[in-house]
Amino acid sequence: MNASNAIRHGLDWDRATQALATECQTFIGRNPRSAALARQAQEHLMFGVPLHWMNDWGTPFALHAAHAQGATVTDVDGHTLSDFCLGDTGAMWGHAPAPVAAALQRQATRGYTTMLATEDAVVVGRELSQRFGLPLWQFALSATDANRYVVRWVRAATGRTKILVFNGCYHGTIEDVFVDLVDGQPRQRDSLLGQVHPLLDHTVVVEFNDLAALDAALAPGDVACVLAEPAMTNIGMVLPQPGFWEEAQAIIRRHGSLLVLDETHTISTGPGGYTQAHGLQPDALVLGKPVGGGVACAVYGFSAPLAEAAMRAKRLAPPGHSGIGTTLSGNMLAMAAMRATLTEVMTPGACQHMQTLAGRLSGGLRELIDRHGLPWCVTQVGARTEFQFCPTPPRNGTEADAALDAELEHFIHLSLLNRGVLITPFHNMMLTCPDTTAPQVDGLLAALDGVVRQVLPGA
Ligand SMILES: Cc1ncc(COP(=O)(O)O)c(C=O)c1O
Fold first, then answer.
1. Is the CB of 263 under 6 A from ligand 1?
2. Whose CA is closest to 240, among 282, 267, 274?
3. Which of 93, 90, 71 is nearest to 344 (CA)?
4. pTM of structure
5. SS3 at position 254
6. What does the pLDDT look like over 203-231, one tens digit per residue?
7. 403 CA to middle of ligand 1, Å?
8. CA within 20 to 30 Å of 336's CA: 2, 54, 200, 407, which one?
9. Segment 412-445, tens digit of pLDDT
10. For 359-368, what is the mean pLDDT?
């Protein structure tokens, strides 16, 4: 933090800078065992963590988890944290849900991977079809991979080479999507490491909620598919304007392109995701992260015509590698986890509970923002709630990006963590799960209130 005597997003920046230094000291004092493990990890783990993103929490050293259950994570120093991050959606149904734990236990002595189909796969395919309304499904190990394979299938099925994404999107580390609009011009994302193939040749990018731009971009007739989240969640949340998807679907159809909806985060909307809740009709749907209750797996489903065209493309291709799939895709362990998750965990009752508590959280946040006169807003998509540093909800990726403030987020996240509350390290997203309780929600609100109060102008 470097601005001095400034008011930033309604807060006194000098006070926030001092408070951050205090929070860092508090974290260091609270977590000696994590500190010791972090020191040891430096010896053999690049960046001192299994994945470099794990440093994005902004803690003075990596917090180490001991175990996670329901809506809590217990760290190695024995603090039990209320978890509103939930593995950034991977644990959206709570940590170690009992039916998934039981299924994994059953499978534990029955093998994990054989490259053979199982009875669980039949049940999972049926469940997915009934839930999402698309008849035919395939599996992957991550949402990233599922998106990558869908794009490959769609290109093969349509013979078109381009895809269209919305500015500010994230669909995992599938290369094709790392294209932004910078001052209105498409540009490959600078942060992408080791990228050698130019992405702008085959990826078109427009702003979310801009129907005219969508229409113009699809008009040449060379875009195989629009790959989109039904509501953007990865640059801060951006909701579709009323009527956006109805018109967007008509435009996509008119230009002979396909719609691929990535529901990996928006599954927070309810048991059938945003798609079912709002009657959307995608040609393909992707779901990763929580579909196996936290076990690594992902699914993608196709409409009958797309599946037919994709299968024809495969039949007509010469024998050999398709570029689709990995050895462990559809493995027995993942299938058992998905079967339990779909049949026993992702229930309407569970979703109702999650949404009720997310509503309590959103309402409490709005009240807090009003009380302190902060120029912030709150957006909710089912069990997913976010506060953003702008007075009205952003309408596209550019507006959402302008509302991000990594330093302020860092201060808030670390302060909450020191008060026993975990929220995602990226922007200000909070999820509720079937195990989240009203006292946990109220605890988060009280903690945030305490953090904000100490850095209000004139406090
Ligand atoms: C919408 C969306 N799709 C795909 C992914 C990629 O998921 P994974 O990292 O599990 O591959 C993410 C990750 O955040 C996501 O938000």
1. no
2. 274
3. 93
4. 0.97
5. helix
6. 999 999 999 999 999 999 999 999 999 99
7. 22
8. 54
9. 999 999 999 999 998 899 999 999 999 999 999 9
10. 98
